[in-house]
User: Fold this.
Amino acid sequence: MLTLACRQPQFAGVRQTSATAAYNPLVARLTGLCVLTNDECAILEEVMRCAHEAVAGQMLYLEGQLSDSVCVLIDGMACRYQMLPSGRRQIIGYILPGDLCDLDFMLVGRPDHSICVMTHSKVVRIATPKLLGIIERHPSIDRALRLAASIDHAILRQWLLNIGQRHGVERLSHFLCEYILRMSLLGQTNEDGPVPFWFNQVALADTLGMSLAHVNRSLQKLRCAGLIRLAKRTLTILNGQGLADLAGFDPQYLGGTGRPAPAI
Amino acid sequence: MLTLACRQPQFAGVRQTSATAAYNPLVARLTGLCVLTNDECAILEEVMRCAHEAVAGQMLYLEGQLSDSVCVLIDGMACRYQMLPSGRRQIIGYILPGDLCDLDFMLVGRPDHSICVMTHSKVVRIATPKLLGIIERHPSIDRALRLAASIDHAILRQWLLNIGQRHGVERLSHFLCEYILRMSLLGQTNEDGPVPFWFNQVALADTLGMSLAHVNRSLQKLRCAGLIRLAKRTLTILNGQGLADLAGFDPQYLGGTGRPAPAI
DNA sequence: CGCTGTCTTGAGTCGGATCAAGATTAGTGG
DNA sequence: CCACTAATCTTGATCCGACTCAAGACAGCG
Assistant:
């Protein structure tokens, strides 16, 4: 069992569900990126009918192990990571509700990193051929999925910039800004209202390429500066502007499209 | 003018050109990833007919600036980077002959980072709608481009791992291993034969998230250890296995497909 | 209520940054 | 072909951010 998994209840946030159908985070995500017809939404919802539960620590993909399906997260949280023989681990991304576990796997078949559920989650596995068929028949879905993927890639680039060029405290701040904004875009929270925060400090350390102790001290600094409150797995932003300024956070990249940038 | 640009002559390596047609690095790259019909190759070659020259330092994309075309590098080298207001720069990838400048831009229209030519290069600009049309009509080309992109993403993940978790010397070694292998896959060189090496130490520093001085000292260590020779913009690997061991380099990710891994 | 995972804090050390100077090596124009 | 100029590389000295190690405090869970 990986220590980066947390045993935490799943999302409790209120859902902006359309009264008629069950709320579907993938459909919500994709319609936010690209106009989809009702038909197309229905197809996606059909595909997502059989979600199953995953417990904290459960693996969705194992590095190097063939896979014939694509996972979509419905609820909870997962993370991708790569390990070094020395035992060091780098987390290379977090998967939130509505996110896919990498379309690249679909083509390659064999992921180059592992994906692990961090909390009790709901996951849908879609068989690769099925998804490929849908993509082929529905260019809008194809486009929406590509856009979603392109945002994931932009996030990855930002992480590289973050780890490569920023010092501890700013690095942490940037990550927090990104997380908060991603969550608020999901409608899980408003921009600085309290957000569920499942990351333990080990996970943060492996995310930000810094030591556990240093993560802890950096968090203290943010607390002392009156920028955040973090306790009981809940994060509250006390001074969003201050945090963003400190991090040099530019939310543009999470928008992905040419549409107006999400407010911060 | 950016200091990371080098004024260097273009590739001089011998080309494995098919006797009949001019060697086309994009076609070579894509046929290596996916079976393409002669027709499809012809279409690609047609599209690539009008290459133009770019001088060192020339920008192919500017962060945030709308773009309606996709660049393919025919010869030379380019790099993507992002800058911080503080002036710090993170290079987030190198573009070698046969590589595309990010399909994601095509959908989004507005790149989130800049791309700059590092040496005198040859570049083809393909209008976005034209490329989209080709992709739509030729699923094999689509697939090949997606595979190529997925390798780029795998490289990005490896960089994150590299910067996040490895110390200076190993970090540098890993980068060198990757570079050598990418070049040898292009047929520009054999695996440890001398390779043209245009990176100046400033560029390496901005690539690896370390200071110029530290890059220099790390290079010295590799030289002293008898692993590499680097002079006159030419890199020779004296002990490839040693270098790979030091870096913990696993070439798998550059293969991209489920095909046998390239030899190292 | 004890156990385990997580967080916190301190002391000591080290890798790597910064600053600054000098040595080389290209590139340029005469 | 040479001399000048600008980039690039090299090296040393110093300092700081961040790591490691280690111990103790909490908190949540069974």
Remarks:
- Chain A has ten helices and ten strands.
- The radius of gyration of chain A is 18 Å.
- The longest helix of chain A spans residues 139-165.
